[in-house]
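Same chain as my last thread, 225 residues:
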Amino acid sequence: MSHDPPPQPSEELSPPPEDLSPQRAGEPSPPVHPEDLPLTPAAHRRNQAVAMIVLVTVWVLLWGTLSWANVLGGLVVGLVVLTVFPLPPVTFAGRVHPVPLLRFALRFLRDLVVASVQIAVLALRFGHPPLGAIIAVPLRVRSDLNLTLTAEALSLVPGSLIVEVDRDAGILYVHVLGVRDRAEVERFRDGVLELEARLIAAIGSAQEQRLIREHTPSTLEGSSR
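reply #2:
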């Protein structure tokens, strides 16, 4: 006489595991960059105002004289540029820090004087034509605003000129006078990174400042503060 096997308890199927990719459970969500968010009307007006201030400042610096005529001329030029030639939206995600901004301005004026003296010395050295080089400098903050302001600051200093900007990779290609060896190339590159750090300290966001601190070369630690 055959005996049937005892009935086995039905096996309850567990629900499939929840798909947590690309973010795993317990991990923080990936950072959202301000330039990826849609602009509100207030943010658009603020960005336009910041762009106008930057254009007027560059116009006055190019003329080399602070006067009402140059300021009004800069306003007209800025208005034409922003109206007739609309630029891509540049998001200003940071805030103005007065003390670092003053420190940046004083250091920039000092760099202008020092670079002017160095160029004058190179021009007066007969029989020794100055050597030049095109140096690629990858910036740590790759926003359009940081690329633009850093490039403008470098171009205003005598002896350096921006020849190309790789927007996707965040690289500035700078033509520099008076570069004689590899050590001076690295010293100039460190100087550009120090300039970027001072600029971010003056107007950068907390996320941008943290990015600068985390990717500061050991040779610059302490000098960019």
